[in-house]
Amino acid sequence: MDEKLTIPLKPEKKPAKMRSNEDKKQLNQRLKRIEGQVRGIQKMIEEDRYCVDILVQVSAVNAALKKVGYNLLEDHTRGCVTNAVRHGDGDETIDELMKVIQQFTKS
Q1: N or C: which end of the chain has fewer CB within 10 A?
Q2: How far is Cα 106 from Cα 101, in angstroms, rounded to an integer?
Q3: Closest by alpha carbon to 66, among 34, 92, 38?
Q4: Using an 8 Å Cβ cutoff, are 64 and 33 in contact?
Q5: What is the pLDDT of residue 1?
Q6: What are the phi and psi torsion angles at 12 (to 5°)?
Q7: Residue 60: how many other CB atoms lie within 10 Å
Q8: Helix (H, G, I), strand (E, B), or coil: what is residue 5?
Q9: pLDDT tens digits, one per residue of 13-48
């Protein structure tokens, strides 16, 4: 049977390297654009727009979220994972990273 890929949240953990204000600003801008796209999809549904047009927008939102996710995944790998390996805690962190990658790429 497949190992469950759900990874529990760890609010007590902090990144090895904090995001800069500019990084936070860029991520938040992307997420606000995605939020606007989702609102646009809601409006399209309310207006009974053509299904294919809505699906194209859904695909665009999925791609935008994936881009945000890959950005965060890269930051985590270059920051937290690298730091853990340097400090002798690499095995557990790499196992966690692999689960995150599996969960992220299954969608």
Answers
A1: N
A2: 8
A3: 34
A4: yes
A5: 40
A6: -80, -20
A7: 14
A8: coil
A9: 887 778 899 999 999 999 999 999 999 999 999 999
